[in-house]
Amino acid sequence: MAALLRRHAWPLAALALAVVFPVVARSFGQDFYVGFASRILIMALFASSLNLLVGVGGMVSLGHAAFYGAGAYVVGIASVEWPAGLGAQALAVWPLAMAASGALALAIGAISLRTRGVYFIMITLAFAQMIYYVFVSLKAYGGDDGLSLAKRSALPGLDLGSDAAFYYTVLAIFAAVLVALSRLGASRFGAALRGIKDNEARMESLGFPTYRFKLAAFTIGGALAGLSGALMANQNAFVSPNMMHWEQSGVALVMVILGGLGRLWGGFAGAALYLALEELLSGVTGHWQIVLGAILLLVVFFAPRGIAGLFPGKP
After folding, report:
1. Burial 150-177 (b: 16+ CB within 10 A, else e)
2. More confident residue, 198 or 293
């Protein structure tokens, strides 16, 4: 038991701090930071879904935001088109957002994964931009102006209109996804993905169906990105085509690099650092990205395993 506690000391400490954070923030009259913490967790989920592709599978995608935005639009469109009682039900809409984004990732991955290297990067970028412009042209759902949600989705027994309740819901989802990703990474599937990242030709010569492994990972990553998009749509009560723009994929990739490629906690560490820097520096200068770029260079040179790699164990 003692060895188990030592092994999971950092995750348990982080979970304990996350649980008490809303109480502490509210006691100091800083309710704003509860919503900010929810945003960090949602972006951490988005970055973690991309980390599965880039850090574990070696698939550098600049089109990941397409799945993030697709999940958000499922929530937005359901709130408009479905009967009010059904369109606002999280248990109906959020899994559908995952399924739709996963199906989109499956279709895009089936084509994109037949290429490699820079061609794969460019074809995922091309698909994402195509989808972005499709939603810009959908005037029925706001077009370039986006679509506002009347209220957040509903969960039985919870008032997600409360920032604290929504925060704890997002925290529970993120914790469950991290556990699932941890089990996935420790499985034969995860080992095969890492082998494909290191030497795909050798894995093929050993008889592994590398295309199928990569397509499965690409689909899982897309589904998780869709879930993060659905949560962000609820957080902001708003969806727009900008959620699908390639810049969102770039932001997620920066978070992954900052946090640690292939590290379980890399998505969270990168999202927390990126959003904290944005919050702190944007009030000082409109050129806060310059400081972020300098920090990114420092991380690349002096902490190549990312922020998560600075902690003991395998976070």
Report:
1. eebbbeeeeebeebbbbbbbbbebbeeb
2. 198
Section 201-223 average pLDDT: 94
Q: Does residue 61 contact residue 120 with C-beta atoms inside 8 Å? A: yes
Q: What share of the chain is helix, strand, coil (3-state, %, to 5)?
A: 75, 5, 20
Phi, psi at 302, each rounded to 5°: -110, -15
> What phi and psi values does residue 245 have, to the nearest 5 degrees?
-65, 150
Contact between 52 and 221 under an 8 Å Cβ cutoff? The reply is yes
Element (H, E) at 72: helix 65-81
- The answer to whether the CB of 10 falls within 8 A of the CB of 315 is yes
Q: What is the pTM of this model?
A: 0.93
Residue that the structure tokens 């990168």 belong to: 270
Q: pLDDT digit string (tens) for 218-261?
A: 999 999 999 999 999 999 999 999 999 999 999 999 999 999 99
| Phi and psi angles of residue 159, each rounded to the nearest 5 degrees, phi first | -105, 95
| DSSP structure class, residue 28 | T
Spatial CA neighbour of 175 closest among 306, 78, 44, 23: 44
Q: What is the largest CA-CA distance in the chain?
A: 61
Alpha carbons 65 and 173: distance in angstroms, whole number: 20
